[in-house]
Amino acid sequence: MYNTNDTIVAVSSGWGPAVKKIIRISGDKTFDILKSLASRNFQKQRAIIHTPVNIDELEIDCRFYLFTSPNSYTGEDLAEMHIFACDEAVELVFAKLLALGCRNALAGEFTYRAYINGKMDLSKAEAVAQLIQSSNQYQLGAAQRLFGGSIEKKVGQIRQEMLELLSLIEAGLDFSADDIEIIAPKKAVETAGKIRSGLDELLSGSITFEQIAHAPSAVIAGDTNAGKSSLVNKLIGAKRSIVSDQNGTTRDVLEHWLKLDKCDCVLFDCAGLVAEPADTLQTIANAAALRAINDAVAIIFCADITKPDYSNDLEILKRISKKPAIYAATKCDCLTDSQISTKLKSLKKLFGTDFITTSAKTGLGLEKLKTLIEQNIITQTSNASEPAEKTALTERHKQAVVEAIKNIESACGELEKGSEEITAMFLRSALQNLASFEAEHIDEQILETIFSRFCIGK
Fold first, then answer.
1. What architecture is domain 228-382?
2. Element at 329 (helix H, strand E)
3. Number of other residues whose CB lies within 10 A of the CB of residue 234
4. 3-state secondary structure at position 56
5. Is the dihedral of CA 403, 404, 407, 412 positive or negative?
6. Tell me, what's the pLDDT at 388?
7. Are the C-beta atoms of 10 and 78 separated by less than 8 Å?
8. DSSP H or E run through 47
């Protein structure tokens, strides 16, 4: 996948306007290459050196941060060049480094080297990628929890229990000829059951990183021609949804990106729901809208404040009332303040809840609506998954735990049959399943556990 025998280089700060740019170099020849670049002797030691780099009669201001193996991010000799210059100057330095023997780093290669050199486990390496990709507080929080190692601690405890049980069972097999019972069958079954419970709790008390990291969704729903598309266009600040006085202009679920203060969300503009679809097209549009509503974290139910009759709105609401919603009265620019006040009282009596006043034409209530959407997302996400307390798993982690549970179940069944050799086989498989969390050599761990608990000479 990667060649780890050469020295790699990359611009790690990204391009575009900035006070400084950062070039990162890692590999055995790092210090030799820097010596040739800056025409000065860089001692192989941890240091910060401020010295210019001269390229084509151009003096470029640089600060070098030097790290020596193994005490660096990658575990190799590593340097960061902080360059206080324009992009063109950075390109000159980068080209010079390539000419001096560096190779252009591939995506994720610095973190890959950190992983293979034992500077971080695979879960932390995955968390680094998620941290880079985070675009809201939920993604960032999930990545930080993954990087913090809480999952490794929990899995480590369960693996230790597995190792101890396996060491006892294998010790019993070693001493079976002497009729020595190392662990009672009943106790072994109880221990295996405890391990199974621990894995179940880990799975039930977790949420996959993919679930947390993906942006939550909000959906605009309501009767046909309720002003939903106009409201969406105003919220996102662009004319993305078609607006018309004709009923049923929107026939599909349209997807938009809505930026909020604390998080971003995907905003869906649904076709107007119809209590009794008149044709196949309306039936399909209704089904698509209901799917989007069912999957959404936040629902904004729109009602045209100028309407005289809300019987269809009430029927529609019955179909989506399983989830809390934000109620928005649209087209408020069409009425006077007095008329709005009267209509809001009428709407509250009909629907049993308060409506906020909005207008896509004047912008009335849009900031309040955004705040309510954000609060609703935070509340619903917290209630549904409690990301602040649940363990963040990647899909790879989840599958490893599921497979480990299957093997522990099989081990329990073999223990009850008295088949200790097959039990040991399933326990080893379960340990292998969880090894992906820690990347440790299992056989050596088993031997170490046996030697620490028993005197082999006895």
1. 3-Layer(aba) Sandwich (3.40)
2. strand 326-330
3. 20
4. coil
5. negative
6. 45
7. no
8. strand 47-50
293 vs 310, residue with greater confidence: 310
Superfamily of domain 8-119: Probable tRNA modification gtpase trme; domain 1 (3.30.1360.120)
Cβ neighbours for 233, distance < 8 A, ≥ 6 positions apart: 239, 240, 241, 243, 360
* Alpha carbons 8 and 98: distance in angstroms, whole number: 9
In the chain, DSSP finds a helix count (H) and a strand count (E) of 16, 16
Model confidence over 373-404: pLDDT tens digits?
A: 988 887 776 554 444 445 566 667 788 889 99
- DSSP summary character for residue 223: B
| Total residue length of the chain | 458
CB 197 within 8 A of CB 162: no
**Whole-angstrom Cα distance, residue 15 to residue 60?**
17
What architecture is the 146-205+392-453 domain classified under in CATH? Answer: Up-down Bundle (1.20)
* β-strand partners of 59: 54
Residue type, 39: S
Residue boundaries of the structural domains of the chain? 8-119, 146-205+392-453, 228-382
What spatial distance separates the first Cα and last Cα of the chain, rounded to whole Å?
49
- pLDDT score recorded for residue 7: 94
For residue 333, how many other CB atoms are within 10 A of its CB? 16
Is the pLDDT reported for residue 359 higher than 80? yes
Which long-range contacts link 127-133 to residues 24+ away (Cβ below 8 Å)? Answer: 130/209, 130/213, 133/213
Burial of 46 (0-12, 13-18, 19+ CB in 10 A): exposed
At residue 25, does pLDDT exceed 70?
yes
Rounded Cα gap, residues 392 and 252, in angstroms: 34
Amino acid at 458: K
Q: Report the predicted TM-score, pTM, of the whole model to 2 decimal places.
A: 0.50
- C-alpha 57/C-alpha 34 separation (Å) is 18
Token readout for 104 is 């252009």
The SS3 assignment for 55 reads: strand
- What would the two tokens of residue 19 be? 């006070």
